[in-house]
Amino acid sequence: MLYTGTFISSIGTGMANALYLYVTETAAPHQRAWLASSGPILVSLGVLGSYVLGALTTWQYTAAISIILSILSVALVKFLPESPAWLARHGHLNEAKKSLLWLRGPGISYENEYKELCDDASIERRKKNSKIILKTAFLLLNVWKPFLILIIFFCLQQLSDAHRLPYKLVPNPFIIIVLNNVKVARTKIKTGTQPLWDEEFILEDIPSDVMSFSLTLYNHGKRSKDTEVAEVIVELTNLPNGEEIDGWYPLVGATPIGEWGALHLRIRYRNDLAMPLEEYSPLQQLLLDPELQFFLCRK
Predict the structure, then answer these.
(1) Which residues in the chain come in under a pLDDT of 50?
(2) CATH of segment(s) 173-268
């Protein structure tokens, strides 16, 4: 489910970039700059709103409210007109004029903008010697080359696990090691975009009922209490006995908002038996025998 959700979320995030293109084509010339640049600000406000909802309610309610807003956005798309620039490029000049009138509203002159739109569309159509359909458009060098570069870049980023901690959200991180809900160790507080703890912890005589341990990431509050941010759970059964492993472990956030980065860990797990199992059971029965008698001898 996590992989499926991540895949769907990534596809949706990529397709949402078409909104910037629509805003650029439909906005008035004097409004295009600030409308196109307001996207990251609105995204930050949306993330802030999700954090507030996550703090006030559970993550299920936060996800439900986010879904409602997404459905509302999809429903409102039905009332939006087609881009005048797109209509003009495809020869639908009357529809482009109606769309421009709807977008600008009554009482606003749009004749000069409409004339420039028609001239640009006419020049662009003359440049095309033949009609390019969607299937052949992907064969153009200026289409598949940037697409291929982006795919290689993101694949290398994922394979190299180049995920940093969100510094603005976790400016003073530290980690607590937990065994069976018991805090057994803590790192120092670090700062910076790439915190490096370089600390070694040796845990001995781990009880047999402990099947995993967790590393919980906290943010140290200078004027407030420390807040839990994310955690990594390591299953002991997945660790080879006596061998040292070195790798990246993704952090799972306390709230399902974006990516929290990953921790690079070097772990050695050793499970030694003081007595073979076939000999331990008879010894246990002997020691627990109620008729067992002890004699103290003093020399």
Answers:
(1) none
(2) 2.60.40.150
